[in-house]
Amino acid sequence: MPKLITTRTRIADLGKPRIVVIGGGFGGLEVVKSLKGHHVQVVLFDKSNHHTFQPLLYQVATSGLETNSIVAPFRKLFGNQADFYFRLGEVKNIKPEENYIETSIGSIKYDYLVIASGATTNYYGMSEVEKHASSMKNIVDATKLRNKIIRQLEYALLTSDDEVMNSLMDFVIVGGGPTGVELAGALTELKKNVFPKDYKELDMRQMDIHLIEASPRLLNGMSDQAGKKAFDFLTEMGVKVHLGTAVKSYDGYEVVLSNGEKLISRSLIWAAGVKGNPIDGLNAEIITRGNRIQVDQFNRVKGYENIFAIGDVAVMEGDTKFPKGHPQMAPPAQQQGKLVAKNISNIIRKKPLKPFHYFDKGSMATIGRNKAVVDIKGIRFQGIFAWYVWMFVHLMSIVGFRNKVFTFFSWMWNYFSYDRSNRLIIGRNEEKIMLDEVKP
Amino acid sequence: MPKLITTRTRIADLGKPRIVVIGGGFGGLEVVKSLKGHHVQVVLFDKSNHHTFQPLLYQVATSGLETNSIVAPFRKLFGNQADFYFRLGEVKNIKPEENYIETSIGSIKYDYLVIASGATTNYYGMSEVEKHASSMKNIVDATKLRNKIIRQLEYALLTSDDEVMNSLMDFVIVGGGPTGVELAGALTELKKNVFPKDYKELDMRQMDIHLIEASPRLLNGMSDQAGKKAFDFLTEMGVKVHLGTAVKSYDGYEVVLSNGEKLISRSLIWAAGVKGNPIDGLNAEIITRGNRIQVDQFNRVKGYENIFAIGDVAVMEGDTKFPKGHPQMAPPAQQQGKLVAKNISNIIRKKPLKPFHYFDKGSMATIGRNKAVVDIKGIRFQGIFAWYVWMFVHLMSIVGFRNKVFTFFSWMWNYFSYDRSNRLIIGRNEEKIMLDEVKP
């Protein structure tokens, strides 16, 4: 029986095991790369034609980096890999009994399936917040946020109503993880170094940057020392950090906090959490905590022999150090991707599987110019050296040599010029709001 | 009486003459720059917050340059210029009797008005062509075209119907001026160097690039020698050049040519002409040939004392060498912008005005790697040296030092790697077409 169910995808059956990978994030990329040279056919599906380096999206949103430096076309990455096929399309459904998936461009059989579909923003059911907030999960989000930040300042020039002006100049960031902390820091640098030159007519002291975190500390995945230092850095820089505070509601104008306080802002950026983005068709009972798919220690989806899930969308049972699942960051996804590729190859060659053990390389976050916090294996340091380490590690991790070079030049440029050259509004009309609408 | 008619724009009356400039293209930019240091207030209105270097839009569309390298934020360009105000907004109407303009963000009085609103694509009344064609006038157009070119190839992978596949792989460029010639060349380089690696499953010999030109030659603004050489270069590279041929109709699938020939293509790129983009409110009789505003030899709009028009939107009477108006390119706009700034200053200081004389610096076009044509003051040369000259001149003309550096690196990268790293689809869902729609 031919593996091709419809002719739409036009991927020939080469008589080799076919491994279909859903999603080209950090995990999916590693699966594809690690299968190179094995006697298999690899098919990657993604909604975009490029990988996105998510950890630097916040720099795109704050005009520090051009979009193109942090994305890499899949076809460029895997152009030399034999028996690799990329298809631009959205996977709609898995049919595990018949071993095929349905996508926006047709259906295709698999011998092994790897679900690496990542995570989406979690608004915890607050649909009004979702409607009005900005999110930061992909390059379109980041560009829209960049457009919005600049446009708010342009609009602020046009009003003499103090409340409206403040609603345009104030920014509320929800979530004190790395994204929230880094975004708050980067916005503060815009406020300090760029906006005073661009908007001489505005009083920049009026621009408030709020960072809201529900738990009593920042950077929960890191050491207490890192969290405390990040708090100190941000507070010194003028960010208003609200710890132990949650957002109760947001109507696009008024933010109501759990302590009853109200903030007025047209810009609420939601970086407070993610949830898994599983694909329909699996047994619903295994979609568990945080909307993630339960997997065994080989990343095999519970109850299925030839379906694997890795990274943000997977939650592994049996790792006693991580009873709630591994952190939803690049390193677990990459390590799992690598091992899954190896284990699929082991299955094919009828060798025993190797269980996953997470190797914690440490974590880090940057707060601003010369300011970062780093935890590596019990070693904790903060400040300018941490900032160099952060830059080096991120530069090395960006996918594609050209992207590394261009990002390096952009960072040097920004550092020495104190400038952010990408403060561009490049969008369509439908993104514009009219000033008359700013006050409800 | 205060100059401020509504409070929306919030630009204070400084008691100095106020010069309002509409449009920050090559002409408008020169007006603003040249007014620096004069005792005047300058207000620039533009629909975008950045200047666009239009001559390189075709490189964005063909994945050679990142968008950010050819745009420069106005606030960055003029951040140090005293009494300069930028406003992001669209000018709707001129009220010449009362000396004010109406814009999307309110109205404002002027003492002197400079209309530098440029040109838009001219479809010569063919509304069906307009509906289905891609244009190349701004950064959103260029990005949409880039997305479309790549997406067509992705879709071509999905069909086994020969006609549908050809409709997706064939490109029709209309207009044999610099834009059309350069785009045809750049597309051919993608076909030769990039697509065969990216789309191994497609037979690239099937990809046809047609260039349609109504007149009997290419590059009408240049020497016969340049036109002939451009034709030879393109023909050698495999472009199908149709001279003396016009497009009669296009329904999104079938192109009907004036000689009765039919081409099948889902991608028709219209670079066949522009028309002036004047602002409503002027005496309709002075909107003349090519929708351009009649101006005298001082670029003063006919019948008005304090309104000037420059560049693509203006047509000057009395220059015997250019009875149909100056060419709609950067140099006349820049030279007129400079002189208008000087002449406004002369009016204020009650000095005599200087008439405009166009200084023709020559013109050039690039066809591909090591291939360009250059005409400078009777000197004509083509080939690799012309290509170096083209690159040097364009690099020097790009606005902003950082943009020059980044463009230079991109060009070096592309040259030595034979690669185009920006082959990205970064867009929204509404741009997508479904494969089922490709065959009408």
Characteristic terms for this protein:
four-stranded parallel beta sheet; homodimer; globular; FAD/NAD(P)-binding domain; 23% strand; alpha/beta; 2 domains; disordered N terminus; 440 residues; disordered C terminus; 11 helices; five-stranded parallel beta sheet; 31% helix
Q: Tally the structural domains of chain A.
A: 2
Compute the number of strand runs of chain A.
Answer: 25
The CATH architecture of the largest domain in chain A can be given as 3-Layer(bba) Sandwich
Helix content range of chain A: 25-40%
Oligomer description: homodimer
Unreliable spans of chain A are 1-6, 429-440
Give the SSE layout.
2 copies of one chain form a homodimer.
Chain A: E1 18-22, H1 26-34, E2 41-46, E3 50-52, H2 57-61, E4 71-73, H3 74-77, E5 84-88, E6 91-95, E7 100-103, E8 106-109, E9 112-115, E10 119-121, H4 127-132, H5 139-156, H6 162-169, E11 171-174, H7 178-198, E12 209-212, H8 224-237, E13 240-242, E14 247-250, E15 254-257, E16 262-264, E17 267-270, E18 274-276, E19 287-288, E20 292-295, E21 307-309, E22 314-316, H9 330-348, E23 363-368, E24 371-376, E25 379-383, H10 384-397, H11 401-417
Question: Please, could you describe this protein's structure?
Answer:
- The structure is a homodimer of 440-residue chains.
- Chain A has 440 residues and is α/β, with parallel strands linked by helices.
- Chain A has two domains: 18-47 and 89-121 and 274-348, FAD/NAD(P)-binding domain; 138-272 and 369-437, FAD/NAD(P)-binding domain.
- Helix content of chain A is 31%, strand content 23%.
- Chain A has eleven helices and 25 strands.
- In chain A, the strands form eight sheets. A five-stranded parallel beta sheet of chain A has the order 5-2-1-9-21, covered by helices on one side.
- In chain A, a hairpin with a 3-residue loop joins β19 (287-288) and β20.
- In chain A, α1 (26-34) packs parallel to α9 (330-348) and α5 (139-156) runs antiparallel to α6 (162-169).
- The longest helix of chain A has 21 residues, at 178-198.
- Chains A and B meet through β4, β5, α5 and α11 of A and β4, β5, α5 and α11 of B.
